[in-house]
């Protein structure tokens, strides 16, 4: 004989010789003669290792005390306890005690991946991610949704959810902003066999977000290759000096080539330009030498020009003073003033005017 106590938070399932007999309420029981009891908590799902749930539900007393939910192969059930979300139930049959808590269920059809609008978005923060796919689309983006590799819809900015079902869901995100593409370090030979490295940049935006993914394989790579080929075509036509003198011509040529392809790539090219032309080391040294020589020659020309201008100015001044005695006297007075600033004492007699004596002193000193 065995004594067993069932608390108020439990119920018991009585088995005799392996067969379910009845449900036991809270209390003390004595077991004998092949009887066994499974203790079940009231806040847990009703399960038993001794028999199936269907067998338990055949007992009318037990069936009236429980809430039952059956979930099909293409369904999910949201489980609520006392009005609060408790979890998700997948395929199967479930039973919960209704003695203390109130159990409710909302069954959702997941035959297709699309989530019904009646399902609150906040629930997905509580549902395990193994049941759904979350897609975030930025303000500057479009999302292409595929069901089993077939385009199903295009989504604007927002947050979207899709059920994980037998239908495969794929997403392509298209950035509709103005985008910059850099073509860097392209080594090319000019018409006179000089090797150059060119960095090029172009800006573009997608104009048809559906066709750019459904009709073109990697539009970015195709745009990149088109720019490379246009650069090589231009560089191969011209000599090294011509290319350096006409960078704008190269930019214009490549831009026009890319514009001719934008309709087929479903994009809009807004601008394109050469960013850098990088010379080989030996060519760069030669160019620096030439530049230094050119600047020295320009400096010599400027120096000679200034010397000629200075000499011409002196000659003009001499002619004016020779023709105008008053101007000559004023010039003498100007020089006397400058000298007097640096002289302490000067002795002057009374035989002639002051300016004549000062002038004679200067002439005498100069002699």
Tell me briefly what this model is:
This protein is 35% helix and 35% strand.
Structural description of this entry:
This protein has 367 residues and is an alpha+beta fold. The protein is 35% helix and 35% strand. The protein has ten helices and 18 strands. It has a three-stranded antiparallel β-sheet with strand order 3-2-5, with no helix packed on it. It has a three-stranded antiparallel β-sheet with strand order 8-7-10, with no helix packed on it. Strands 13-12-15 form a three-stranded antiparallel β-sheet, with no helix packed on it. The chain starts with a strand and ends with a helix.
N-to-C terminal Cα separation, in Å? 152 Å
Beta percentage is: 35-45%
Oligomer: single chain
Largest sheet: 3 strands, antiparallel
Structurally, how many domains make up the residues?
5
Q: How large is the count of helical segments?
A: 10
Task: Note the overall shape.
Answer: elongated
Give the spatial strand order of the biggest sheet.
3-2-5
Order of helical and strand elements: EEEEEHHEEEEEEEEEEEEHHHHHEHHH
Low-confidence parts lasting 5 or more residues at pLDDT below 50?
none
- Average pLDDT, all residues: 86
Structural class: alpha+beta
Total count of strands:
18
Please give the share of residues in helix: 25-40%
Topology:
Blueprint: E1 2-6, E2 10-16, E3 19-24, E4 27-31, E5 35-41, H1 53-57, H2 60-63, E6 66-71, E7 75-81, E8 84-89, E9 92-97, E10 103-109, E11 132-137, E12 141-147, E13 150-155, E14 158-163, E15 169-175, E16 179-189, E17 195-206, H3 211-214, H4 219-237, H5 240-245, H6 247-259, H7 262-265, E18 267-278, H8 281-323, H9 325-340, H10 354-366
Antiparallel strand pairs: 1-4, 2-3, 2-5, 6-9, 7-8, 7-10, 11-14, 12-13, 12-15, 16-17, 17-18
Helix pairs in contact: 4-6, 8-9
